[in-house]
Amino acid sequence: MNQLVFVSLLPVVFLIAAGFIAGRAGWIRASAIKDLSNLVFLLLTPALLFRTMSQVRIEQLDFKPVAAYFLAVIILFTGTLLVQGFNRRAAVLALANTFSNTVMIGIALIGLMYGPQGLVTLFTLVSVHSLVLLTSATVVLELAVAHEQKQGASSELGSASRHPVATVLMAVKNALLHPVPLPIIAGLLFAQTGLALPEVIDKPLELLAHAFGPLALVLVGVTLANTPVGRHWRQALALASVKNLLHPLLVFGLCRLLDVRGLPMTVMVVASALPIGANVFLFSQRYKVAEELVTASVVVSTALALLTLTLVLLLVGQAA
């Protein structure tokens, strides 16, 4: 198992390092990151998700591992709020402690290590990951805003806030009409028809899907090269440690408790060990809180993941 871990992680490290060098050398400018991100997120990701799920029958899906994953999320999210207090900053930090980069890094890593079977398990999580976490975070943040406004502590958000119900409905709509869950749902629906994709459609989708992993990982390296950590590195390291180590340890323990074993357990634990997802930064921007800290935390968490993922993979390898 140790050899499998290092052999599987080395391509990930090399691709991220290649992107980092390209970013530092100026071969890929910072201004191009958004366009590359759109290419990966809006074109390559849906192609991979749809093609993979178009071959999966619903009866093959197992939501028990996902239940273990989200139980750990609830514990960690609630624990963060209890420690930090009920406010916008605490809600954003709680999201940072629980929201994994399941798409840009997770799909590439799981695909390289565990192939299509591992991806089906991951996509079962991905299909509800953003919908559940981002909608829940929106509810908590809106309640925190209302609480702060009542205490006169967030007047800067007064003109931008909307009714909590309207915000939650908008969050649900945006989470469903999204480049991640939408192709998963469409692919599953197509699979239930029993039809096969015509070669003229399947081949381009296959080529796009194969391009996803390498380009996504190179993009991570480019982003790291162009994002300063600054004076928040100590707090960022603390947040990254919770996300990269405590989160997977909780998921591992709950999987054992709920008798989730084998590949499903491994994929859930690896998914929880992934670094902080970029959506957390978007929330910090929207609610004007902890923006620099969240940015630094995403960078530190991603860099730290090269070490912590190795440790987590060794742990689940010994337990498998």
TrEMBL record:
Gene3D superfamilies: 1.20.1530.20. It is found in: Cell membrane. Pfam families: Mem_trans. It is a multi-pass membrane protein. The keyword Secreted does not apply. The chain crosses the membrane at residues 6-24, 36-54, 66-83, 90-114, 120-145, 180-201, 207-225, 237-257, 263-282, 294-316. Keywords: Cell membrane, Membrane, Transmembrane, Transmembrane helix, Transport. Signal peptide: none annotated. InterPro entries: Mem_transp_PIN-like, Na+/solute_symporter_sf. PANTHER family: AUXIN EFFLUX CARRIER FAMILY PROTEIN (PTHR36838), TRANSPORTER AUXIN EFFLUX CARRIER EC FAMILY (PTHR36838:SF3). Belongs to the auxin efflux carrier (TC 2.A.69) family. This is AEC family transporter.
